[in-house]
Specification:
Blueprint lengths: L1 H12 L1 H6 L20 E7 L4 E8 L7 E7 L10 H9 L3 E5 L14 H10 L3 H22 L10 E11 L1 H9 L16 E7 L9 H5 L6 E8 L9 H10 L5 E10 L17 H19 L3 H7 L13 E4 L1
Parallel strand pairs: 3-4, 3-5, 5-6, 6-7, 7-8
Antiparallel strand pairs: 1-2, 2-4, 8-9
Helix pairs in contact: 5-6, 9-10
Length: about 325
């Protein structure tokens, strides 16, 4: 964690120096042997205090040594088996990737309903209770992962590095990640912040329902990467492409990154086409997401100066398409 703080401080004081120090050989898309990845593990976390079960899917890297952890929180109506392209790539890069499934706002909300009833059910599932459940799922899972990591002979014995933890989320999952990494409530508190998390990747983030972005995000102290698209709206809630970009603008002026995919819809960050989508999926979107997210986590979970230099230079242009926007401060 001290190395992480040092990297952030150096970036704030001398971005140009760090960018010039980047190693040309750094490639966030390179993986050695994706075929060697073990099959993902499906486990269940029991939160006895809430009498709540949290299903998780764990993607482990091929190497047996302790690996930095990335938690992933799905969007409304999702599940632990979604966004598998992220799990495959990040684990092939040496991360232990843990996908959470949040009861009350997962696929069970809509799967058994007739099509006309699905959207109303999804809208009903976005409320204070499900939001708080999601916030509390994160520390419950982290606590259980730490315990599993120390259980001799277990499937996660010695495979995790609890000192290096990142989180990612899409849509309602981004709201979840925001809440546990520094977002303040309307009264100025940040009661759900988990200090074990050192970096956050937010795909399709949202402004707070009460208050303004600067009050909510002005106190964030860890690096955040924002990802959205020029057409990233949603049939649930009032988020627009413009309001999602206000999250980046509201963050403190250091350690923040923003990707805006040209013609990127809400589905751009997932692995299935959503109802109401206007166009086929752009195959380059996932490539960009993987490259920038990997460099971000390499920089701030591993303390990789080459990754930070790659991020804060013209190198990302090698994966971006015409019209994509990339910036940092």
């Amino acid at each position: 964690m001290l190395l992480l703080r040092l990297l952030v401080g150096l970036a704030c004081l001398g971005v140009v120096v760090m960018a010039r120090a980047a190693e040309p050989a750094y490639d966030p898309l390179a993986v050695e042997s994706p075929s060697a990845l073990p099959a993902p593990l499906d486990l269940e976390v029991m939160d006895d205090a809430r009498e709540r079960t949290i299903p998780v899917r764990v993607w482990l890297p091929p190497a047996g040594r302790p690996a930095p952890m990335i938690l992933f929180s799905h969007g409304l109506g999702g599940a632990r088996d979604g966004n598998a392209y992220l799990g495959r790539h990040w684990s092939a890069r040496g991360y232990s990737v843990v996908f959470l499934q949040h009861a009350g706002s997962d696929e069970a909300v809509w799967r058994d309903l007739p099509f006309p009833e699905r959207l109303p059910a999804l809208r009903k599932a976005v409320n204070l209770s499900t939001t708080l459940d999601r916030y509390r799922d994160v520390p419950a899972v982290l606590d259980r992962l730490e315990a599993w990591n120390g259980e001799a002979g277990g499937p996660l014995d010695g495979r995790l590095d609890p000192a290096r933890v990142g989180i990612a989320g899409h849509s309602f999952g981004a709201v979840t990640a925001q809440g546990v990494t520094g977002q303040r409530t309307a009264d100025g508190r940040a009661p759900f912040t988990d200090r074990r998390i050192g970096a956050a990747l937010l795909m399709s983030p949202s402004l707070p329902r009460i208050g303004d972005g600067h009050s909510a995000f002005g106190g964030v102290t860890i690096p955040w990467m924002i990802m959205t698209g020029t057409e990233d709206d949603s049939p649930v809630g009032n988020a627009t492409p413009e309001s999602r970009r206000e999250v980046f603008a509201a963050l403190p002026p250091c350690g923040k990154y923003e990707l805006v995919l040209f013609q990127g819809e809400h589905q751009a960050f997932g692995d299935r086409v959503l109802p109401g989508s206007k166009r086929p999926r752009d195959p380059n979107h996932h490539r960009v997401v993987l490259a920038l997210s990997t460099a971000f986590f390499d920089a701030f979970l591993r303390g990789d100066a080459a990754a930070l230099g790659w991020l804060e230079s013209d190198a990302p242009r090698s994966v971006l398409a015409e019209g994509d926007l990339w910036q940092w401060k």
